[in-house]
Write a structure and sequence with these properties.
Layout (H helix, E strand, L loop, with lengths): L35 E5 L5 E5 L19 H58 L13 E6 L8 E6 L1
């Protein structure tokens, strides 16, 4: 009867709880070569995962370096600046709002003054007739201007009636 090789079993895992940890179950021992092993994730969590062992004698290839495009860097640097500018503009508008309202009232007063200034001569002119108080006859002037070509010299005539 041939001698069977002894199977090596690791010592059982023991764990002593601390005040910061809850009781945990020990990790089971997995047979080697099964393609399943314990892996540590980037956040520190240990979990079971399928693994692909590298062929013997071949070193794993490192991942190529990640390059960030220049436009992405520029955009990332500009974003806080644009946001800050928009925020500053909002604050400036909130401070300027009372002055803008006061200027709007002043502009309405100016519009009323211009309207009154335009209407006054019209009202005074309708009161006098052609023969009244120094009214002169209406004079008509006709002007004819002509030019030849895009940059031609303009000539004109005046006709007084």
């Amino acid at each position: 009867m041939p001698h069977e090789p002894a199977v090596h079993h690791p010592a059982p895992i023991t764990w002593t709880p601390t005040p910061y940890h809850h009781a945990a179950t020990p990790m089971p021992v997995l047979p080697s070569g099964s393609g399943i092993s314990w892996v540590t994730l980037p956040d520190g969590t240990r979990t079971l995962a399928y693994t692909h062992p590298a062929p013997i004698g071949v070193a794993p290839t490192p991942a190529p370096p990640v390059t960030v495009p220049t436009w992405a860097k520029t955009t990332a640097l500009l974003a806080p600046t644009v946001g800050g500018g928009i925020g500053a503009a909002g604050i400036g508008i909130s401070y300027a709002a009372p002055g803008v309202l006061a200027m709007a009232e002043a502009l309405w007063a100016l519009v009323a003054l211009i309207a009154a200034g335009t209407a006054l001569p019209l009202i005074l002119r309708t009161g006098r007739g052609r023969g009244g108080r120094g009214g002169a006859p209406v004079q008509h002037i006709t002007q004819n201007i002509s030019a030849t070509g895009l940059f031609g010299r303009a000539t004109g005539t005046l006709n007084n009636r």
